[in-house]
Design a protein that fits this description.
Helix content: 25-40%
Order of helices and strands: HHEHEHEHEHEEEEEHEEHHEEHHEH
Number of domains: 2
CATH class of the largest domain: Alpha Beta
Distance between the termini: 24 Å
Number of helices: 12
Strand order of the largest sheet: 1-9-8-5-4-2-3
CATH superfamily of the largest domain: Type I PLP-dependent aspartate aminotransferase-like (Major domain)
Shape: globular
Length: 376
């Protein structure tokens, strides 16, 4: 059996090696490394896939979130509601801009932000909601958009883990995650479902004027070279990464199907284990399984992780410390106990290997090892 990885990027590359190598050589031969045709074509192709009016590529997913907030004119003293159960980048950019992060709890099944708690956290200073589409499925955007409309709030989707997921509204219409709010953002970090071989990110919007502001902020606050109308940043996707992403975008739906097949194998294997809660599927969102994150109850999570690792199986805890309990973001407004679901999840969640390249032998070893732990 070949070694098990959380994400087998080497195995994935071997299957697309000839395409990737040719694309990289094409960029080198062109010497169009910055804002060249590969970047422009990738933006068009991703916009077509998402059915979004505009896609603006940038340097990484963290930049995408920061640029979105800058383009919307959020300023120090404003409040932004976001989950605490997320990677720190979601909150980091809020704090960097002098904005106040207001933490909402999440739902115990999907791990996504709880719309009812969003309502409880709105104040006169609230200017935006940042739902995070965690682990591969879209947050419940129907009520979130209704809340935003009622209170005149912006919605910035953190779509770094759910690109390709479809959300179905109560009227039966569908939209891709990241295209529902005012702005969507994503990361192309190598381990993402759509990942490059370095850093990369993108911002989506259906508002032409907002797209122009986003492009301006990305480019040092400038439309015309050496003339700077607003404070901006330098954030761009390089052409080599764009060339790789164009190849992988064409395979994204197949990758999602492969991830779902792995998830189904896990679900079936663990269905009768008393201390395992397999990932809940939202009734109105597809799941693209960026992570297969289950809940391990009864205090068994850490010992199961050790057991897996002793048998050559990596397992990860996303996330062991929630944002409101991190030293950098602690405040008296959100003391320990204030987000009970979030805090419980940090003691129970465990993610198993999730890769397009996992084979039957590896999956059997993983599932047998988990079941064996509970038979000891």
């Amino acid at each position: 059996m070949k070694p098990i990885q959380m994400v087998d990027l080497v195995g994935q590359y071997q299957k697309i090696k000839s395409e990737v190598d040719a694309a990289l050589q094409r960029v080198i031969d062109s010497a169009a490394f910055i804002n060249g045709p590969e970047v422009k074509e990738f933006e068009k192709e991703l916009a077509a896939y998402l059915k979004a009016e505009e896609v603006i590529a940038c340097a990484n997913g963290t930049d995408a979130l920061q640029i979105a907030m800058m383009a919307l004119g959020l300023k120090p003293g404003d409040e932004v509601i976001t989950p605490s159960f997320t990677f720190v980048a979601t909150v980091e950019v809020v704090a960097l801009l002098g904005i106040e992060p207001v933490f909402a709890d999440v739902l115990p099944g999907t791990f996504n932000i709880d719309p009812a708690d969003i309502m409880r956290k709105i104040t006169p200073k609230t200017k935006a909601i940042v739902p995070v589409h965690l682990f591969g499925q879209t947050a419940d955007m129907d009520p979130i958009m209704a809340i935003a409309k009622e209170h005149d709030l912006f919605v910035i989707e953190d779509n770094c883990q759910a690109i390709g997921s479809d959300y179905t509204f109560s009227d039966g219409t569908k939209k891709k995650s990241g295209t529902i709010g005012h702005i969507g953002t994503t990361s192309f970090f190598p381990s993402k479902n759509l990942g490059c071989y370095g850093d990369g990110g993108a911002i989506f919007t259906n508002d032409d004027d907002l797209a122009k502001r986003i492009r301006k902020v990305c480019n040092h606050g400038s439309d015309v070279r050496y003339y700077h109308e607003v404070v901006g940043v330098n954030s761009r996707l390089d052409a080599m990464q764009a060339a790789i992403l164009r190849i992988k975008l064409r395979k994204l739906d197949a990758y999602s199907a492969a991830r779902n097949a792995v998830a189904s194998t896990y679900d079936k294997a663990f269905a009768d284990l008393a201390h395992i809660s397999t990932p809940a599927r939202s009734s109105n969102s597809d799941h693209v399984f960026h992570q297969y994150t289950m809940r391990v109850t009864g205090g068994h999570r850490d010992s199961l992780k050790q057991h897996l690792e002793a048998h050559g199986i990596p397992a990860m805890i996303y996330y062991p410390v929630s944002c409101h309990m991190q030293a950098a973001y602690k405040s008296t407004r959100f003391p320990e106990g204030s987000l009970p679901v979030t805090e419980q999840l940090t003691h129970e969640v465990l993610s198993l290997p999730m890769s397009t390249e996992l084979d039957n032998e590896q999956l059997t070893h993983i599932t047998d090892t988990v079941k064996g732990f509970f038979k000891q």
